[in-house]
Amino acid sequence: MEVRESLIALEKAKTEEVRLSNALLAIQGESSLLDLAAKKLVYAKETATDWNGRVYTLGDVIGSNLARHCIETLGIWSRLDPKCGIEIILNSPGGDALPGLALFDFIGELRRRGHSITTHVLGCAASLAGVLLQAGERRVMGQGAFLLIHEISAQMGGKIGDIDDTSIFLKKLQTRMVDIYMERVQGKISRAAFIHGCKLKDWWLSAEECLKLGFIDEVW
Question: 3-state SS string over the chain?
Answer without folding.
Answer: CHHHHHHHHHHHHHHHHHHHHHHHHHHHHHHHHHHHHHHHHHHHHHHCCECCCCEEEECCCECHHHHHHHHHHHHHHHHHCCCCCEEEEEEECCECHHHHHHHHHHHHHHHHHCCCEEEEEEEEEECHHHHHHCCCCEEEECCCCEEEECCCCCCCCCCHHHHHHHHHHHHHHHHHHHHHHHCCCCCCCCHHHHHHHHCCCCEEEEHHHHHHHCCCCEEC
